[in-house]
UniProtKB/TrEMBL annotation:
Organism (species): Lapidilactobacillus gannanensis
PANTHER family for the chain: UPF0145 PROTEIN YBJQ
Homology family: Belongs to the UPF0145 family.
Pfam families named among the record's database cross-references: YbjQ_1
UniProt xrefs under InterPro entries: UPF0145_dom_sf, UPF0145_YbjQ-like
Name of the protein: UPF0145 protein ACFQ4R_00930
Superkingdom, natural source: Bacteria
């Protein structure tokens, strides 16, 4: 399946629109990652634990959106947009959402 942020696929024509599809993932950040991130924030550097969590959440959200598009009979998602939010009273939850238009290409 083609997933793109553009409004079309070069060399292909959209023949049917199936509507907007979404992928949502909410994941918790554990205490060990928080401590490691706190140290990196103080001393500098990248937080590999957070980066891995973000990458996994992003991939899961895209896979969920793709599965929903496939269920509609689409072979592409165009105009894909992704958003990230921190949730929870202690900011311990990460929400990744993506959306796009499920289409059939000719």
């Amino acid at each position: 399946m083609i997933i793109t942020t553009t409004n079309g696929v070069e060399g292909r024509q959209v023949t049917d629109y199936y509507g907007i599809v979404f992928g949502e993932v909410i994941t918790g950040i554990n205490v060990l990652k928080d401590m490691g991130a706190g140290l990196r924030n103080f001393f500098g550097g990248r937080s590999q634990g957070y980066e891995e969590e973000l990458t996994n959440a992003r991939e899961e959200a895209i896979a969920e959106m793709q599965a929903r598009a496939e269920k509609l009979g689409a072979d592409a998602v165009i105009g894909m947009k992704m958003d990230y939010e921190v949730l929870g009273s202690d900011n311990g939850m990460l929400m990744v959402t993506c959306s796009g238009t499920a289409v059939k290409l000719g």
